[in-house]
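Case study: TonB-dependent receptor.
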Amino acid sequence: MRLKTMNNKKRFTVSSLSLAVSIALSGASISTQAMAEEETKLDNVEKIAVIGSRAAPRSVGDSPVPIDIIDSEDLRKNGSTDMIDMLVTSVPSFNSRAQPISDAATLVRPVNLRGLPSDSTLVLVNGKRRHRASVIAFQGGGINDGAQGPDISVIPGAALKQVEVLRDGASAQYGSDAIAGVMNFVLKDDAEGGSITVSQGEYYEGDGATTTIDGNIGLPLTDSGFVNISAQYKTADATSRSVQRPDAANLIEQGNTDVNDPAQVWGNPEIKDDYTVFVNSGFDINENVQLYAFGNLSSRDVVGGFYYRNPHNRGNVYSVDDGETLLVGAVNGDQSTCNVVPIPKVTDANGNTVDGNVLTSQAYLDMLADPNCFSMNQVRPGGYTPQFAGTVEDHSFFAGVKGDIGEWSYDASAGMGNNKSTFSLRNSLNPSLGLDTPTDFETGAYEQAETTVNIDFSRLFSIGSLEDISFATGFEWREESFEITQGEEASWIAGPYADQGFNIGSHGFKGFGPESAGKNSRNNIGVYADVEGYITDDWLLGVALRYEDFSTFGDTLDYKISTQYSATDFLSFRASHSTGFRAPTVGQENVVNTQTSIVNGDLIQTFIAPPTNPLAAFYGGEVLNPEESISYALGTVFEYENFFLTVDYYNIEVSGRIAQSSQITVEEEDYDELREAGVEHPELISAVTFYTNDFDTTTQGIDIVGSYEAAFLSGDANLSLAYGWTDTSVDKFDPDTTDEGKVRRLEDGIPAHRATFTWGQSWERLRTTLRANYFGEYYATHADDTTEWGSEVADAAVTIDLEVSYAVLDSLTFSVGANNIFDQEAHKLKDGTLGELGGVYYESGPFDYNGGFYYGRVNYTF
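Here is what the predicted structure looks like once written out:
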């Protein structure tokens, strides 16, 4: 086996390769002493990757597939302490969007790699599969609609040695979810030293103040091991980029004094008590046996906003469907005994007909005088804007043993992960309870739990003249479950006034009832074989094969072929071809929820049902099947002295892609059939959505990554470029479950062109980092509304980040900086939409719509 560096070539001995393979299989959880010895052998080799191959860890340039490696120092050169924001500026085809009003997606922000949803990227920690988040992104910006990926935001930068991003399909190597690629978060393994960092920042607008305190310490575990502990605590205030809604402003003008200004807030959620602790450890029993263990404990509280409910025209709460009269309930059940309350109309200064103040109308006052009659205006006379709150708790633990038996290396491990999101709703109503409704609700919880057992074996062997061929094989058993916990009764019950047309459950996010609560699980086994070796001194060839069998839908067999050819000492070519799959998550198969969406500027209540639920099945829902993919990649690597450049093209065809359907209107003529099928109160459900395998896509792109180091301005300069072009086309879809707007969001919802250029300059004690971020045109939507009213093509933009650091002492460094230092404004809503719902910017944009953010940071190392 050959490991190539920029300036020299080295061959692994059998003993050193054995240790390296052991590192790869265990996720680099080895003792500090062993690592130090290995680094001595591999002097001058930097940025060694563990993922992408089960042979020896190798440099990025020697990999037959594209890999980005971001070390912990690079991650910290960013004003944000959120791992997602750190990676967006470092990986060319990694994207994320803000989530101001997005139900549960406000709690766990979805991401995408190479134009595919977050659950198409496999996430590892120390080489072991990371569990999914319990949150499902029901409003995930098009690409991530319905995605259920891991929550990487709980991983603090202080805990990491480096992040490895494999930008290539790898299901044949690692199993489900690796269609887009693999991300491996490698934890620090120092047995001594540590650091403490305090950072504080806020937006130019004076809101969103964020405080982060993190620390890391390495401790020896006798002379043969280590315990490395990292912790982070963070708080972040909410932001508001809102204007008063015209309808709310009119109500105030007409004399309604119970309307807030602004009535609805578009902005980042408030984050409180956000803490996380990661522990990584290793211990050498002897020269041939090592133990390792790692895990985390994390929690955070998040409070975000929802849409404003107008007290005149919110159907099934305040008004009848036409919005011309109030919805009046009768205590005795006979609505005909209550007078109709029309919403008065007046002429404003511009000659437009607008709503008057119904609260002062004689019809409303007469209704109040009748003890048999009521309207929800009596509880919330100025309307209301629910607040969506949640507590996300996350923990994991993995332990294993690895070593050598003769010529074989082995790694056996077991681990578990759990993520629970407990939801609550504030300032809302259960209209069907009438005037007895509470206004705050505990709506229930989602919980994702996973258990994984692995055993891997590897060795080197020779065939004729071919030496040091790497062979690896292994077995994995995994069980995952998704549980829905029932909310308090008031959050889901159909109260006495449901039959009179009042909405059921806490409005905005209905609580989970007994029919929704329960636990569903599945298990699967996987077996793989992986062979890799040099056919000649310059030609590397690898083949992987994996078989998996799931208890719910059957089995799958996938393969991968990868190769690299070194044309010269400076230039090499690489390629790969693979098949892949992504199993539908247990959550996607069984989740139940109620979401509020915007269509043509109007709020509609949508019921999210399992695909086999009677309501979903009536409109086309079927049992989910795995996605299947075929990937091709071709690239080149050029490295000469201090210059490094990779150019990679990829093409990913996904068939039977799983996603949330578009909103399907529940038609009045279907009510009777739906009742016969077991659907209760279909007349109170505006639309239904469910998960379906209803479309095929082809995603292609080009990633360019380059870097150059040189002496400059009497110091050291490091220039780097990360550029990504991504293009997705929907090849086939079912128009009954996926509309044209959703198709366009899939194709154009993220910029086709993304680039980041970074100039790092350092002197003896002073260091500066200047970063330019380019975001190309994209299809912008407001509040997930893909109609002409709420969407358009948004302009390209450039943001500039700057950080300056000065080392006062060898161990003490002060840093100041700003993200989006010139306060580049996000794309504004077009005329006719601007301010209509209280918003100013399209929240679906690729960079932070809150504007410039400045910060300061103090770091102490010991």
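For the exam, be able to explain this: The first strand starts at residue 2 and ends at 4.
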